[in-house]
User: What shape does this take?
Amino acid sequence: MFDPTPAMAGWFGYPLELDDRLRLIKGAGFKAVLLWWAVESAYEPPIPQKVDCAAKHGLAVENAHLHFDGVNSLWLEGSEGEHYCEELVGLIAEAGVYGVPTLVVHPTRTLTPPPFSEVGYSRFMRMADVADKAGVELAFENLKTADRLYELMALIDAPHVGVCFDSGHNHYATPERRICRDFAPIIKAVHLHDNDGTRDAHNIPGDGTTDWALVRKELIDSAYKGAWSLEIEHPLTDKFGKSLVPEKDDPYFGMGPEEYLARAFAAHRKLVEGTL
Assistant: This one.
């Protein structure tokens, strides 16, 4: 029977400790979680505690997201890119130690990333080699520009390397492409969220203009059999405490985390059932 596991991002916009967030996620009905694979804010504990916290609340770790602030440096010659690559390599190896099955990776950042380069490709291949040894799959995500993803995946032929399909990025940034369809045989993770086609809002599915019937069909037609994961974010604050939008633009203004997660879980069920 078709019934993909409901998964939820560990960060969903409310400035709560991870333990409280995961408790609420489990209480809403979700069975798995997406973790942030770095320590960059007061709300993110060290990596071993993240995994232990998920286990404590009975949540499977569906995948984890490598941080991406310096990812453009990977495409440039020099020590900055080399040091950043070594940092990511260490995090990939650590994912294997703690049993994280899949890591989501950004191949670039910003609308104008550096051009494709041999040094950049060699660094990503180094990451892929470490992932293979660690027993971890890598899923490269579609972003504001999709060309680099297509360039990379045309060159990488490894069973443990594939694509993270992000529905929100596809809808607002590259609607002319069908990412899930184009990479159907190698989808290894999904990030599902909604927007109105003008910005990366990370709204609950149904609170935007995404064609969810099309997304659902493309996911079902793909080779992907993992959890359907919501990467949604109440715009109260980002991981670092910064407010994302003015109150007038917040579709969830005044909504507590329990109500927000209940609404998210209901939307997930509708998406699975084909009634969204």
